[in-house]
């Protein structure tokens, strides 16, 4: 492992930006492309907002923990909550499935996370919490030294 960080924050919507900024700073050393950076921030946003909205129902009481690890040019991030958990992970990962249609949620969170990650894993236990882990290999935009 080259580097790692852990950030724990209160499950409130404004901390979604905190998580994005922290991960952006963490992966900056890899000199990612703008597209890679944008996609990875989107995955972080989706995972964190799911923990806040679905895990804790935005009660502002729970904690979300983000753990990031860098090995060479591969970043692995886990977003963990001890909230409600997901009763049926397979169903929750289906495109357009949402339990919050009244909030105009599209049900595309896991689909987006999966498409912008090299690997996505969701482990959840009903009434105990969820861990979403995603991995992405970055390709530096640095020009070779001549």
Automatic annotation (TrEMBL):
SMART domains: HATPase_c. InterPro entries: Anti-sigma-factor_SerPK, Anti-sigma_F, HATPase_C_sf, HATPase_dom. Residues 35-140 form the Histidine kinase/HSP90-like ATPase domain. It catalyses: L-threonyl-[protein] + ATP = O-phospho-L-threonyl-[protein] + ADP + H(+); L-seryl-[protein] + ATP = O-phospho-L-seryl-[protein] + ADP + H(+). Its EC number is 2.7.11.1. The lineage of its organism: Bacteria, Bacillati, Bacillota, Bacilli, Bacillales. It comes from Lysinibacillus piscis. It holds the Pfam family HATPase_c_2. This is Anti-sigma F factor. Binds to sigma F and blocks its ability to form an RNA polymerase holoenzyme (E-sigma F). Phosphorylates SpoIIAA on a serine residue. This phosphorylation may enable SpoIIAA to act as an anti-anti-sigma factor that counteracts SpoIIAB and thus releases sigma F from inhibition. Keywords: ATP-binding, Kinase, Nucleotide-binding, Serine/threonine-protein kinase, Sporulation, Transferase. Belongs to the anti-sigma-factor family.
